[in-house]
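In this supplementary section we document a worked example of the pipeline. Step one takes a protein sequence of length 118 as its only input; no multiple sequence alignment statistics are reported here. Step two produces a three-dimensional model, which step three serialises into structure tokens for compact storage. The input and output of this example are shown verbatim.
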Amino acid sequence: MSGKEFRQLCGTVLIMEAIVIGLAIPVAIHLEHLRHGLAGGVGGGLAICALVLGGLVGRPGRGWALWAGTALQALIIAGGVVIPAMYILGAIFAALWITGIWLARRLQAPAASTTPSA
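The serialised model returned by step three reads:
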């Protein structure tokens, strides 16, 4: 798996996560009876972070974005304090994030070991 494929895999997880978080904002307002500003601020902030990191993860010189994406998963789970549904959504996307990283590393390992060394 090349860097481009890794970027696409992890970036897709983060972008889909941003969409789901954005869609959870009106649900949190109506079902959880949260104030508009609180739900929009917490949910919107997390969604924007996921979008930005989705565009940066896997790019050369942006190794920190992988760690930031991992930290974002923890923040989204912690967002369950404000929006309880985020506990479940955060756990699902954290599992997808970890699986994506594991799969990318696993697929990169055979390619690295089969290349001839100079």
